[in-house]
Amino acid sequence: MTSNQARPLISLNMSFAFTLPQTFIHLLDDVLLVKYFHVASLALMVYDYLLTLPDEIQYIWTARRTSSGGMTLYLLTRYLNFFDATILTIFLFDRRLSTQPNTCSSVYQATAWFELVGITVAEVILFLRTYAIWGQSRKILYFIIFSTLLMIPCAVVIKKDISTLEFSPSPFPNIIPCVPGGRKSILYIDYVLVLGVEFVIILLTAWIGIKQCKGETK
């Protein structure tokens, strides 16, 4: 094909792109950005897994010790990530979902619930670590109980979000297999709650670390 023959195709594609609704163009941009971050996160997760696998084999799989709650939490937070990532990868990249809006909804619901479970397990590990470094302080225990109860409104938000979100067939299955309805997701509320709790945990960890450093220098 010559360059002169290719020009009409290019101009046709460009004119077609400009006839798309602006909201849909923004949606395509957002989906591409999410895909980039997802692939980057997968690469980091696999890299971290390979780096720490020898230690896991030595201290978890071949160690002569009975199972414990801490080991169970570790394995859950370790391997639930791969399960979550697999479901999210299907949601973002499986073009067969483009003609199955109901399946899109099911995969989206599974992703949301399993991510909540994974986040809860990770938060419990952080809570226990904070409780330990603070010498099992009763005040910290109250904070942990309160923070754990925040998972209840998180679950309520997820339930409300997935019960009202609908999907439609995608005109661009290779880019965005699942096209959500016009309503915006409210899952950002969960992220705000989790970020707030983790910010407090960072402050508590930094405070006890500074306090111990000052005690050692005296």
What does this structure look like?
The protein is mainly alpha-helical. It has one domain (26-217). Helices cover 78% and strands 2% of the residues. The chain is built from 7 helices and 2 strands, in the order ααααααββα. It has helices spanning 3-18, 22-61, 69-93, 101-133, 138-149, 151-164, 188-217; strands at 167-168, 179-180. Strands 1-2 form a two-stranded antiparallel ribbon. Helix 3 (69-93) packs antiparallel against helix 4 (101-133), helix 4 packs antiparallel against helix 5 (138-149) and helix 4 runs parallel beside helix 7 (188-217). The model is unreliable at 1-17 (pLDDT under 50).
- Main structural class: mainly alpha
> How many distinct folded domains?
1
Mean pLDDT: 83
Distance between the termini: 80 Å
What's the SSE pattern? Answer: HHHHHHEEH
Instruction: Tell me the major beta sheet.
Output: 2 strands, antiparallel
Radius of gyration: 23 Å
Low-confidence spans: pLDDT under 50, at least 5 residues? 1-17
Strand coverage percent: under 5%
Number of helix segments?
A: 7
Shape field = globular
Cross-sheet strand order for the largest sheet: 1-2
Number of beta-strand segments? 2
Q: How helix-rich are the residues, as a percent range?
A: over 70%
